[in-house]
Amino acid sequence: MNQATLILVKPDGLKKSLTGNILTRLSETKLEIVASKMSRVSKQLAEEHYKHLKDKPFFKELIQYLQGELHDRRKVMALVYYGEDAITKCRQLAGATNPEEAESTSIRGSYGRITTAGVYENVIHVSSNPSEAEREIKLWFKPEEIIVDLYPAKDVIEEKRKTKGWI
Ligand code: UDP
Ligand code: MG
What we know:
Blueprint: E1 2-9, H1 11-15, H2 19-27, E2 32-39, H3 43-49, H4 59-67, E3 76-84, H5 86-94, H6 107-111, E4 113-114, E5 120-121, E6 124-126, H7 130-140
Antiparallel strand pairs: 1-3, 1-6, 2-3, 4-5
This protein binds uridine-5'-diphosphate (UDP) and magnesium ion.
């Protein structure tokens, strides 16, 4: 079954110059990249992304981590991968959440670490099921930023929205 999944190269992945490496690993899946961008991560976006963990003792550090405050990289690379069993394939390559338990050849097993504060810095995010993927993709991307029609969208007329144009 065709699926979409959100991938984030987290700030530790960017700081460690792992972007190319991670994308090369993910290319083994033969999935299609249907959206990609560098994204600043506001506190609001980080908290919404990880809202299922808001009661965890490491939540504050986790938000700082995703915002790039621990790595002096206030951005992430966000991508949407699409194709047959996309979620399973990408999670398999990413490895377990805890980098010490992740298979040593997986992305997280190869490059992740656990901080002294107890946060798993595991270089990559992958959605874990189709409904989570839909929620997350809609959180990180607008319909027009994705080159296929993944989910139903409507026309929105935006008036008086301040935006940037080239001079
Ligand atoms: N995390 C952590 N400690 C934990 C569990 C999770 O630091 O005990 C962090 C880790 O960075 C993880 C993120 O919180 O990637 C989201 O957790 P989730 O359980 O959703 O794991 P994932 O889907 O990323 O494998
Ligand atoms: Mg998760």
